[in-house]
Amino acid sequence: MTTVNAQVTALAISAAIRVFTYNGTEMPDPGTHFTVEQVKDTYAAVYPELNNATIEGPVVKADKLVYAFTRTEGAKG
After folding, report:
1. DSSP β-bridge partners for residue 22
2. pLDDT at residue 69 above 80?
3. Is residue 37 within a helix (H) or strand (E), and if so which, with residue range?
4. CB–CB of 68/22 below 8 Å?
């Protein structure tokens, strides 16, 4: 008769937290049901310049997914 030693390893699965940044300000996720574009539109009510911003990311930092809103540079005129 053979004896089998089995080792069970438990894995913890957790959802990454989305964080949004703009101009050095870190902003929380207003809702996981929003797309990233909808989050940008939501924050555009406070930061109107986000209407023309681009979205970069996500970049993984620890347990966070960090998205950056970057203002699009353009010529006035």
Report:
1. 25, 69
2. yes
3. helix 36-43
4. yes
